[in-house]
Amino acid sequence: MKKLTNSVSRRTVLKVGGVSAMVLAAPGLSRAQAPTVKIGLLQPMTGGFAGDGDLARIGAEYAIKEINDAGGIKSLGGAKLELLIGDSRSNAEAGAQATEQLKADGAAIVVGGFASGISMTATQAAARYELPFIIDCAVSDALMTRNLKNVFRFNPSFSMAADVALKNLVTINDASGKAAKTVAIVHEDGLLGSGLAKLMQARLPALGFEVVEAISHPTPARDMSNVVLRLRSLQPDLIIPSHYFNEFVLFARTLQQQRVKPKGGIYALFGGAASSYRFVKEFPEAAEGVMDVNHWGDPKNPTNDKLMQAVQAAGKFYAYNAPINYSVVKVAAQALEFAKSAESGAIIEALQKNEFDSGVMPYGKSKFDATGQNVNALPLNTQVQGGQIKVIYPEQFAQAKPKFPANG
Amino acid sequence: MYSPTIIFEALMNGLMLGAVYALIALGLTLIYGVLHIVNFAHGALLTVAMYLVWLASDRFGLDPYVAILVVTPLMFAIGYCLQRFIIGPASRGSDNGILLATLGLSIVIQNLLLAGFNSDTRTIATDYAFEIVPLGPLLLSLPRVIGLGVSVVTAVLLWAILNRTDIGKAIRAVAKEKLGASLVGINVAHVYAMTFAIGTACLAIAGGLLMPSFYVSPTTGAAFVLVAFTIVVLGGMGSIPGALIGGLLIGVVEAISSLFLGDSLGQIGIFLIFILVLLVKPTGLFGARA
Predict the structure, then answer these.
(1) 121-160 in A: which are within 8 Å (CB) of B?
(2) Do both A303 and A278 map to the same domain?
(3) Does residue A315 form part of some domain?
(4) Same structural domain, A112 and A215
């Protein structure tokens, strides 16, 4: 057999080698001219929350493209942004691992987290390297009480949202001549639902509502007909639910089937239905009139419409993950601009000291307090009206008037 | 206090849901009665059946009840092959082996479903999902009424298969005395696989009955199979009438205690009855021997 190596002359080897060295070096040269800064996006790309992670990715990529097209980070000589995606695999341990990986891959700042449990471990991992971390939409109050100076939260906390939810409820109800007087709370018996139920039971009576019953159910629930039977017997004016998506589907379907229509309708906090186009599309009749207080993009911001179109073009249902991650990447980019550096310490200081444009979120100017919480974060009230999710409150963002009582 | 109408309606709800529980428990108890193993893959196979019904409806536009006719033979074949070619050989003849094989299978199936369908919740929208059957002052859900009827018919059919057909006789022979059955020329491996197949086919029917009013995600089966295990023990392990009566009883107890105690605490009712039966009659309601 002929030896191939002998047929290649020394000169050829040198020529080929020289050319390939130049080709390989070329990207290095261009990188030296406009350095890139890596932004880590920590999201559940697989597992139970994979759908949420995917929407977040669409939002974040949209922001990165917009920033790079506009010339990158100007204070860093027009540095381009590069998005690194860390998969938290929908669980807390993997969230911490993915954060470590993002650090190892050279992320200057990490945004995301999504769920409270995942954000808890991920921010803890980031704290070890003083890696700046901006949480996108995890609500647990406990996240911001740990005195970690690298951790910031863009979205409202649970108690901030509850305050807004109650205030808006009173306003909407007063405007209708106090149509709703009695309230039933239906909640899952885990941390999320029980926490909300306790808070509502403590605060609703002082606001003039009578809580007739707080009904808890396990997750997963096999059946909601007994819960609905109880509601039929209690006949509350308003139902405040708190459970995960599957249970809400079951609950709303059973309400519809058993012809239980509380006069005031359903008023949810982070409840999903009036902020899930998937639910609205699959169960239009059950969804109609449902109100929700949740993260939501400013409908009057034209970029929000474009994001919505981008999500639909990808064949997905729009939800808050896209606008909130679009916006949190924008905040991270502004922090880099202020910091004039990709060093952790400088970015953290920039986040602490400055005010930021809030992208498409209705937060006005975002400002982080001493604990790292964005003091101007605000959830919006939405209602399903005519098969569309409409913002009904506060007024400066409203697309429609609240239809209350929803079934009056 | 609730009005009698509401209490009676809860009772009917319990009866109707209990019938579907019974159907799931029927397959489980049959497999236990013959193979003497607890089939840990039962919940995962229920999920598979529900996805097949969903696929039939989503891709081919079949009504979920019509889909039962297609999915049942399919699940029968899946069950037969699983036992004949995977669980049987993997267990190497030991009961512990079968137990572990079914446990492993359930993990594999669940993760395959997760990979194939991701974790989105799937539902089937039918015109009649929200229909009700007014019975005097009672409003009964149409899919639930159909569920009750089909479950009872299936239980009777299953009883007839076991008592009136050759394969039924062979199944009963193997259940009673494996060695003796093989001595008279019964192919034990085939009978095991047939039993597993029938048990799995029951899940196809249960899946079809659940889909018009329920959702499916890769972990859905687990919610039902825990209660099915309880029913199997309550009714007497391996007993067909035990599973049917046990299922109906658990459904009613769950509904009534949920009505009075709330859904979270209502689960207590199930386990109180369960412990009571175990104390008074350890073999279960219809169990012949321990």
Answers:
(1) none
(2) no
(3) yes
(4) no
Q: How many CB atoms lie within 10 A of CB A396?
A: 10
The token duo for A152 is 């910031």
What is the structure's pLDDT at A95? 95
Number of compact structural domains in chain A:
2
CB-based contact B263 A218, cutoff 8 Å: yes
Q: How far apart are CA B167 and CA B30, in angstroms?
A: 14
Query: At residue B288, does pLDDT exceed 70?
Result: no
Using N-to-C axis directions, what is the helix angle for B220-235 and B42-60, rounded to 10°?
130
Q: What is the pLDDT of residue A33?
A: 54
Domain that holds residue A124: 35-156+299-377
Q: Do A223 and B119 touch (CB under 8 A)?
A: no
Q: Does B262 touch chain A (CB under 8 A)?
A: yes
Instruction: Kindly give the pairing relationship between strand A182-188 and strand A210-217.
Output: parallel
Instruction: Find residue A374's DSSP bridge partners.
Output: A368
Domain at A351, CATH number = 3.40.50.2300
Across chain B, mean pLDDT equals 90
In a mutational test of the A interface, the residue from B7, B146, B258 whose CB has the highest number of chain A CBs within 10 Å is B258
Residue recorded with tokens 């058993």 = A258
Cα(B49)–Cα(A327) distance, integer angstroms: 42
Judged by a CB distance cut-off of 8 A, whether residue A217 touches chain B is yes
> What is the three-class DSSP state of A62?
helix
Under an 8 A CB cutoff, do B224 and A229 touch? no
CA distance B217 to chain A (A): 9
My answer on whether A385 and A251 are in the same domain is yes
Give the model's pLDDT for residue A192: 73
Cα dihedral A50, A51, A55, A61 sign: positive
Distance CA A40, CA A99 (A): 8
Q: Are residues A255 and A305 in the same domain?
A: no
Are residues A248 and A385 part of one domain? Answer: yes
Q: Mapping DSSP to helix (H, G, I), strand (E, B) and coil, where does residue A225 land?
A: helix
* Exposed/middle/buried for residue B99 (C-beta within 10 Å: 0-12, 13-18, 19+): middle
For the stretch B28-55, pLDDT in tens is 999 998 888 889 999 999 999 999 999 9
Does A151 lie in the same domain as A167?
no
Answer yes or no: do A278 and A232 share one domain: yes
How far, in Å, CA of B40 to CA of B31, rounded? 11
Helix (H, G, I), strand (E, B) or coil at B117: helix
- Whether A243 contacts chain B with CB within 8 A: no
CA distances from A288 to A317, A364, A388, A404, B51 (A): 17, 30, 9, 12, 28
CB atoms near residue B155 (< 10 Å)? 21
- State the Cα angle at A337 between A336 and A341, rounded to 5°: 55
Pair A329, A202 in one domain:
no
Whether A151 contacts A123, CB under 8 Å: yes
Distance CA A231, CA A255 (A): 9
Residue A144 lies in a domain: yes
Give the integer Cα–Cα distance in Å for A111 and A128: 16
